[in-house]
């Protein structure tokens, strides 16, 4: 199978895999929708629909989270020794 065939196969798999809504994944994981939005906001592979923030206006974006992305994040968050970093610690190098 050539590169084109592999790309088509990967595209077909991505189109047919289940995509969770924020509310649906929040119920499954027992978290708030806000926590799910924060977790997946900048995660690669998440589909974003709507208008991005412009200036001082609020952004209205709908997220759809592919099952493979949800699994990747779940594995990352449940690995031994995982400690989530606080927002204020990100730029300071403090861990």
Number of strands: 3
Distance between the termini: 46 Å
Q: Give average pLDDT, whole number.
A: 80
Give me the number of helical elements: 4
Helix fraction?
Answer: 40-55%
Q: How much beta, percentage-wise?
A: 15-25%
**Structure class:** alpha+beta
Strand order of the largest sheet: 1-3-2
Morphology call: globular
- As a whole number of angstroms, the C-alpha radius of gyration is 16 Å
Low-pLDDT stretches are: none
* Largest β-sheet summary: 3 strands, antiparallel
Please write the string of helix (H) and strand (E) elements: HEHHEEH
Question: Overview of this structure, please?
Answer:
This protein has 4 helices and 3 strands, in the order H-E-H-H-E-E-H. With 95 residues, it is an alpha+beta fold. It has a domain of 63 residues. Strands 1-3-2 form a 3-stranded antiparallel β-sheet. The N and C termini lie far apart (46 Å).
Compact overview of the structure:
With 95 residues, the protein is of the alpha+beta class. Helices cover 44% and strands 16% of the residues.
Key features of this structure:
alpha+beta, 4 helices, about 100 residues, about 15% strand
Write the layout of secondary structure elements.
Elements: H1 3-16, E1 19-21, H2 22-29, H3 33-40, E2 47-51, E3 60-66, H4 67-78
Antiparallel strand pairs: 1-3, 2-3
């Amino acid at each position: 199978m050539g590169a084109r065939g592999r790309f088509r196969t990967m595209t077909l798999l991505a189109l047919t895999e289940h995509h969770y809504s924020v509310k649906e994944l929040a119920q499954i994981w027992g978290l708030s929708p806000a926590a799910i939005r924060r977790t997946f906001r900048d995660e690669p592979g998440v589909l974003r629909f709507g208008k991005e923030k412009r200036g001082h206006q609020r952004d209205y974006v709908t997220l759809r989270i592919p099952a493979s992305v949800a699994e990747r994040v779940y594995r990352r968050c449940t690995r031994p020794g995982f400690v989530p970093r606080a927002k204020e610690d990100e730029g300071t190098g403090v861990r």
